[in-house]
Structures are given as structure tokens and as C-alpha cells.
Amino acid sequence: MARLRARSRRGPAQSHNPMPEAAISEALARRKRRDGWFALAGLLIMLAAVLTLVLLLAQLLVDGLPRLSLEFFVEFPSRFPQRAGIYSAWIGTLLVMLVTAFVAVPLGVAAGLYLEEYARRNWLTDLIEINVSNLAGVPSIIYGLLALGLFVNRFSLGQSIAAAGLTLALLIIPVVIVATREAIRAVPRNMREAAYAMGTTQWQMVAHHVLPYSTGSILTGIIIGLSRAIGETAPVITIGALTFIAFLPEAPIGGEFPYINFNWLDAPFTLLPIQIFNWLSRPQTEFHANAAAAALVLIALTLCMNATAIYLRYRYRRRVQW
């Protein structure tokens, strides 16, 4: 016991070896220099990326801006570059996005709501959550191959607007589910407990408290998912999207009763990314100018959708008072 006490008394004194103040200052200075070099490297990488983007946009503006006119939006594709337009391409894009939103939004929001509020915590729920998170990062060409075997061949939808809309809906459903879950998870738990304390049922709590407070973030995730879908090319090429269409599908709304027409779902289609790809594959420089103009239209659509998401998120967050 005496030896242990003596060793314990000597141990701290022998192990205590304070660093000199100069060494501490040198170590701190060395760490600050490393932080400075790392921040400088990050800044240079960011500037290089921004400069590349600015140069690409400038090149698109120089090449495509002279081709932007009203005739460019209302003319069909043509073998003459001066007469070619994007009429069938942007109409097809809007119709495909309509089918995509009609399928992906209710399914994605409902699935996210169920997983976050109703599903029991067990191994099956954990497996579903892992698969949903993994599906959000799967390359889009995989969804195209799946749609080719399922929608085009198995269900005999062919190269139609319905097949394209369902394909892109599969692509963004995981994104909508993840965005919905994150938005619902952001609602404080005391809001739910207060609703239960007032005697509400679970559905009343979700419908009147959780969903209204998370609507802004859910809409933001939906629009971001649609912004991704509007620029996808690989899945729709896989299912057989046409590169040249000089006609429009039937209008969804007709002039006679019942005023709703579903024949347009079976019509062939083309999209803005497909039209851009077609023009870029041609050797004439005039078609390349058309591709640049169509790319500017696609970028403008994407920016408008992202701006709408930011506006909706800001507007709904102003109304939220915890």
C-alpha cells in the first residue's frame, strides 16, 4: 500500500511535462496556416466552377439568343434550320410533366406521410427506408431500363406520353418521399402532443397541424424533383422517345362533353432534351444555334421552377408560428 501511494504521488509529477509557450504558439500558427490554405483551395475550386458555368451560359447566349423569337416557339421541327422550332418539344415536355406530377406527387407525399407518422418501427420499415434512400441516388438509365421492360413491353404502353410520365414519376418518387419525411420531421413534437391533448385523432392531428406547417417544404421538394425530371434524357431515350415530331397530340380538354380527352396519353412524344440532342447530332452549325436556343429555354424553365420553390418556401415559412 505504501508503494502504491508513493507511486501515485510520483506518477502525476513525472508524467506532467507542460509544453513550452513558444511550442503552443507555433502549433496554433501551423493549424491556422493549414486552415487558410484549405479555405483558399476551396475558394479557388468554387471560383473555377462558377467561371466554367458563366462561360457556358455566355456561349449559349451568344449562340442561341439570336434564334429566340415567337416563331421559334410555335414552329415544328424542320430539316431547314431557319424554319425549325420547338413547338412539339415544349408541348410534349409540359404533357409529360403533367403525367409525372399527377402520379409522383400523391404517391410520394402519401408514402412519406405513412412512413413518418403511421408506420411501426421494425425491421421492415427500416428496410423500406434504406431502399427509398438508395433509390434516390440510382442512375436514371436504370429507371429507363425498368420502364422499357415494365411499361413499354409488359403493359404495352408503347412509346407514349403515359410511358414517359410514369418513367419520370418512378425517378422522382424517392425524392418526393425523402423531402416529405424531412418536412414532417421538422414539425416540433409538442405540436402533436398539444393536438392529442385537445382530443384530436391522429388523422385530425396530421391534417390540421402537421401538413399545414410542412406544406412549404413539401412543395419545395416536389418542385425540385420535377426540375430534375424535366431535364432527364437517358430514361426517355431508353423507352423510345422520338427525335422528330411535326404534329401535336390531341388536346387534354375538348370542346364537347365530357370535355376531357385521354387519347393524348397514347400519343408519341418528344421532349426539349431530346430535341436538343437531335440538333446537336447534326453537322450544320445552324442546328447547333437552335440547340443553344432550346437549351436556354430549358434552363429558363428550370430556374423558374426553382424560383417558385424558393418563393413558396419563404411564403409558407412566414405563416408558420411555433
Comma- or semicolon-separated keywords:
single chain; mainly alpha; MetI-like fold; 12 helices
Q: Count the strands?
A: 0
Low-confidence stretches: 11-15
What is the averaged pLDDT score? 84
Largest sheet features:
none
The CATH homologous superfamily of the largest domain is named: MetI-like
What best-fitting shape do the alpha-carbon axes yield?
Answer: globular
**Structural class by helix and strand composition:** mainly alpha
Strand content: under 5%
The percent of residues in helical segments reads over 70%
In CATH, what is the class of the largest domain? Answer: Mainly Alpha
Note the gap between the termini.
62 Å
Following the backbone from N to C, one meets helices and strands in this order, namely: HHHHHHHHHHHH
Query: Would you tell me which CATH topology of the largest domain applies?
Result: MetI-like fold
**Please, how many domains?**
2
CATH architecture of the largest domain, by name, is Orthogonal Bundle
